[in-house]
Amino acid sequence: MGKINVRKRGKVYEYFFEGAKVNNKRTRISKSGFRTQSEAYEYGLKAYNNYINGEISSKESLMSYADYLDYWMKEYFEINYKYSTAKRYSETFETIKKELGKYKLCALTPYILNQALLKLYQKSNSKESLRNYQKVIKSSLRDAANYFGFIKGNPAGDLQILRVLSFELKKTM
Questions:
Q1: What is the pLDDT averaged over residues 67-82?
Q2: Hey, what CATH topology would domain 60-172 get?
Q3: Which residues are bridge partners to 29 per DSSP?
Q4: Contact criterion met (CB below 8 Å) for 41 and 6
Q5: In what order do the strands lie in the sheet with 5-9?
Q6: For residue 55, how far is the Cα from the chain centroid?
Q7: Where are the domains of the chain?
Q8: How far apart, in whole angstroms, are the C-alpha atoms of residue 77 and residue 12?
Q9: Contact status, residue 102 vs residue 64, Cβ threshold 8 Å
C-alpha cells in the first residue's frame, strides 16, 4: 500500500493503488477515463490522500433521504425498537419523507433541517408531532453518520425545537 500507479487503457489512462486487505485478499482502488497520464496521477494522488484520511465518499451518501429512511427503518429501526414503536412512527416517517425526501443524504444541512422542522410544525400544529419529527430526524442522521458511516458528520446533531416554536407551543397550551 502506498504507491499510485498509472497505466494506459486504450485511449485513456487509469490510476490505481492498493487498499487494505479484506479477508487476507488484496483490494485495488482505481478509476479510469483520464485524457493524460499526469491528469490520472493527479487525481490518483487526491484519491489516495482521501483514502488514507478516511474521506472516501460512499455511494450511499448520494442516496435520497427518503430512500435512506426506508433503509434505516428496515436495517436498524425495526430491529432495535419494539414493533409497536415502529408502527406508531411509520406515519411520522412518511410525513418527513414528503418534506425532506428529495434531498440527498450528503446535502442535508442544519439550515435545511430547521426549515423543514418549521414547515412540519406548521402542518401539524402539534407539540407531540413536532417532538416525534425531531427525534426521527436526529436519530436517523446520527445513525447515518455513526452506525452506517454514510455521511461524515451528523447535520442534525444540534437540531432543537426553535425558541419561536417553543414560545408558540407554550402559548397554545
A1: 85
A2: DNA polymerase; domain 1 (1.10.150)
A3: 17
A4: yes
A5: 5-9, 12-22, 25-34
A6: 13
A7: 5-56, 60-172
A8: 45
A9: yes
Side chain identity at residue 45, one-letter code: L
> How far apart, in Å, do the first and last CA atoms of the chain sit?
63
What burial class does residue 22 get, using C-beta atoms within 10 Å of its C-beta: 0-12 exposed, 13-18 middle, 19+ buried?
Answer: exposed
DSSP-assigned letter for residue 28? E
The sign of the torsion formed by the CA atoms of 11, 17, 22, 23 equals positive
Q: Which residue has the cell 485524457?
A: 35
Q: Which DSSP state fits 139?
A: H
**d(Cα 130, Cα 135) in Å, to the nearest integer?**
9
The pLDDT tens digits of the residues spanning 127-168 come to 888 888 888 899 899 988 888 888 888 888 888 776 555 545
Cell numbers at 69, concatenated: 429512511
Measured at the CA of 49, the angle between CA 107 and CA 25, to 5 degrees, comes to 100
